[in-house]
Amino acid sequence: MIKTLALAVMSTALMSFNAHASLDVVGATISDLQINRALGNYVFVKVLGGTFSISGGQACGNQFGSWQYTLPMNTAQDRDLYAMLLSAYASGATINIGGAGVCGWGSFEAVNGVQLTH
Hints:
Number of helices: 2
Radius of gyration: 13 Å
Shape: globular
Helix content: 10-25%
CATH architecture: Beta Barrel
CATH class: Mainly Beta
Distance between the termini: 15 Å
């Protein structure tokens, strides 16, 4: 019970609280990561499983079965998030991703936060 409550609080903390809708996922694994210079300075993220939630209306990244998230690679914090995504992908760890509430590239949700879980 306490672990579930702590997970819910931590998951909520990394979600974006803004006026736009955001696509969040809890308890997923990363199935694919892609960087393609022709598509700009972004990492594309596809996840499997987990529980998705959309807050605030229609979210960008609601094409399930396609890429759900993008991560721009513009700042040191973006590179830190990318390192966490790589670690989760390599280890098969369960993750929570909070959407930023904006479309990062095309119609894919921008990553706001990442949490690795057990």
